[in-house]
Amino acid sequence: MEKIIDVHDLSYHYAEEQPDVLKKINFTVNKGEWLSIVGHNGSGKSTLAKCLNGLILPQKGTVKVAGLLTSDEEKIWAIRRAVGMVFQNPDNQFVGATVQDDVAFGMENHGLPRDVMKKRLVEALDLVKMSAFAQSEPHRLSGGQKQRVAIAGIVALQPLIIIMDEATSMLDPEGRKEIIKTVRALNKEQHLTVISITHDLEEAIHSDRLLVMSDGEMIREGTPREIFKSTELLHKVGLDLPFAIKMRNALRAKGVPLSDTALFQEELVDELWTLHSNM
Amino acid sequence: MDITFEHVTHVYGSKTPFEKLALDDVSLHIPSGSFTSIIGHTGSGKSTLVQHINGLLKPSKGTITVGDVVIKAGAKKQDLKSLREKVGFVFQYPEHQLFEETIIKDVCFGPMNFGISESEAIKRAEESLQMVGLPASLWHRSPFDLSGGQMRRVAIAGVLAVRPQAVILDEPTAGLDPKGRQEILGLFKSLQERQHLTIIMVTHSMDDAAVLSDQVVAMKGGKPLIIGTPNDVFIQKEKLRAAGLDLPETMTFLNKLLERAGEARTIPAFTIDEAADAVVNLLNGVRDHV
Which residues form the ABC transporter domain (chain A) (predicted)? Predict the structure, then answer.
């Protein structure tokens, strides 16, 4: 599998006298993968995300994106072009007076020719299903729609990687679903690598791989099914569990002989139904 | 302190091309000391509704009674200051409103604004900070050195230091991690149970509404669609679906299991434990029929 990000022994602290907020982090990201990073508030997730596009440079260790070191000043713009970021607050990242101005802003900054911009604008809005709103003003949009416009602005720059830093946490349930659907389509159909920093475990269980952060350390790494097999450690670091896991644990405690594999509600329903049919 | 809405209508941008009917003939009673959750799709009128309770918005038609304060459409010179002292409002992302040099000064700002002496304000601030669980070692530091979750607690302490009789919460846990969320919700539930504070919470979380509330108000198109106990409200799944609202996760799960068993009924269960009991009963019950 081709590695698109390689993080090696990364440490970082915000001020001399303060402890490290990232402590010797090591991991890689595969091309085309959907990776979720979970952890409590203040666990270092967002600092880590900012290291991945060179907004923050490592004090120890290295971060390589598509083979380029973020510490290489000459390569930093190539790296930022390769890594798009969607932040938490939809209102803080809208710069244009209309949806199409906003999507064009990033392309203008990168000095793309006008005919290329026009073509990519149409394609990007189509991908996030916002074509009908091209002329709309931002205050006429919902939070979910604004985040989709932010994603279109990134997609138009044709990045290799999209990082979502709690991009759904300020949205209502419907807006949340819209964004997940949009990004999943970009991941599956456009083969964009997705890194999602999130508290939403119902979202995280759908990813290919999970990293668990606690107090600046990466404490677990694996597929969602591996990670949620044993739940004690996750509980100890203040993480919630996905609904199906909580339900599975509660049922097992009441003597229902369930396995420890079900991750999705549908799987648990299947297992319970099989159990009942065999009774 | 009871809160009553009688035939309240609110129109935004009246007599302009942007005129919008945001509340449409709302009548509602919120009993003193109760926990009421307002649920509804974005744009259903939830925020407009609660902003009437402390006089941020005035009704276009109808009357709102909050304790002994009456707000009538069209009436002038209403005593909004005493109303706002009685009804605290925790806005979305209240930490954005912190501004003072130290945490304690920030929490004192509210009570002093209502004419409380500095020494009394400090006493109340200390009490409130203890209530929200912020360690005393931090009180003389800048609020801007705190984490997001801690900043939110400071902002909430500022509202509590005014000693309101009712508190409105607009999405109080948005953006917090699961642990922070449980702490904030637990705080308000205990304030309601122990100090008989009336709590009105606007939320997108059906799970929180179901577990915490005495009364749930489901809004649709500026009108209450259903008002009742969590039981009354959440068994009406078709009506809720029409309003774009989900069921609590526990009930969604039970529904999937019931559908598999070919049963159309709905079981109200709001905690994981209640739902697990329902599953056990269901397994046993279904087996008995075979």
Answer: 5-240
